[in-house]
Amino acid sequence: METILTINGLNENVAYCEAMGLSKCFEAYANEFAGDTILEVGFNPNSGYVYIALEDYSVSICSMLGRAVEYLVTDFETGEEFFFDTMEEAREHLETLNA
């Protein structure tokens, strides 16, 4: 059975900033994670971030208002969120959380 990817939290009229942010997130996905399972793609109206949540990494690729991509790591025990400029920094933090 085929799974369909949906984009959550956006209307059919996507604002320029959200469209640019999504394009940057998908570019980062293509460069770093192509072929990895995407859990969810969406827009968080509370934070202003568009995001791609990845299943295998516990990391989300995100962009606020079309700015540069950030890598979000969430500590699921505390709910605290950590933002990083590079995937390497995010991976290092994940190792610390998982230790």
Identify the notable features of this structure and list them briefly.
alpha+beta; 6-stranded mixed β-sheet; 2 helices; 6 strands
Describe this structure in words.
The protein has 99 residues and is an alpha+beta fold. Helices cover 29% and strands 30% of the residues. The chain has helices at residues 16-32, 87-98, and strands at 7-8, 38-44, 49-54, 59-64, 70-74, 81-84. The chain is globular and about 45 Å long. The termini are far apart.
The helix content is 25-40%
Q: Compute the separation of the termini in Å.
A: 37 Å
DSSP, total strands? 6
Q: How many helices in DSSP terms? A: 2
Radius of gyration of CA atoms, rounded to a whole number: 13 Å
Calculate the mean pLDDT score and round it. 91
How many domains? 1
Largest sheet: 6 strands, mixed
SSE arrangement, N to C? EHEEEEEH
Shape descriptor reads: globular
Main-sheet strand order equals: 1-2-3-4-5-6
How much beta, percentage-wise? 25-35%
By helix and strand content, what is the structural category? alpha+beta
Low-pLDDT runs of 5+ residues are none
Indicate the topology.
Layout: E1 7-8, H1 16-32, E2 38-44, E3 49-54, E4 59-64, E5 70-74, E6 81-84, H2 87-98
Parallel strand pairs: 1-2
Antiparallel strand pairs: 2-3, 3-4, 4-5, 5-6
